[in-house]
Amino acid sequence: DGVTEVLAHRSDTLQDKFVEVPCSEDYESHKRFAGCTPRKCGRGVTDAVITREEAERIRRIAERGLSLGGSDGGASILDLHSGALSLGKHFVNLYRYFGDKIQDIFTEEDFALYRDVRQRIQQRIAQVFGISSSALYLTKPTFFSRMNSTGAKTTHDEYWHPHVDKVTYGSFDYTSLLYLSDYSKDFGGGRFVFMDADSNKTVEPRAGRVSFFTSGSENLHRVERVQWGTRFAITISFSCDPQHGIGDPGVA
Fold this sequence. Notes:
Elements: E1 4-8, E2 17-21, E3 41-46, H1 52-66, E4 70-71, E5 75-78, E6 84-88, E7 90-93, H2 94-98, H3 102-105, H4 108-129, E8 137-147, H5 165-168, E9 174-179, E10 187-189, E11 192-195, E12 200-203, E13 210-214, E14 221-223, E15 226-229, E16 231-239
Parallel strand pairs: 1-12, 4-6
Antiparallel strand pairs: 2-3, 3-13, 5-8, 6-7, 8-16, 9-13, 9-16, 10-15, 11-12, 11-14
Helix pairs in contact: 1-4
Protein name: OGFD3 protein
Pfam families: 2OG-FeII_Oxy_3
GO molecular function, one term: oxidoreductase activity, acting on paired donors, with incorporation or reduction of molecular oxygen
């Protein structure tokens, strides 16, 4: 894998760590939004936005939702916005599949916490990149992921390939990950890797840690395969384009 540098160790408690990198040209092929489309690009890590206790509460939401399904392969997802839930080799719509029973699974407090956490991450991204928080729109897909060492059964399970979010999802301008479990304690492998020309820069997950970055090719990345245990995270992404905006989920 070439030279690997650790950008954030699990044992670190980081107030704010930010590394600026030159922007790629990916944004040029999309409509630009003044005061939002990245002109300053890079990646940040903070342990000061979400507490470990909040991360544990969010993880319990993920565990409850994912307990209703789960992929046959090693990667399961739950999207509270669209209702997409891994089930075997496919996806089902959680809200249609379980109907009114959904209110026994998620409470209004769960959604309020989710919303609050999302807003704080959004504000931190806006602050670091020098843009207005109101210029950012939550976009899809925004989802929980649960990864373990089970072998992949479909291409959806193969999360370890290098990719660029802006290329994969045109709507993404800023991506964030909130980690809900601890590297080397809850799982082995599963580190997040930025793949730069000269070296790899890794982020070791810890509960409550937020990793965020501009979504273009300047931040080509992958996740190492999980070797043992279970890794929980939530991906929360933002667009500068209001047409790609989605609302927060809630109990209907």
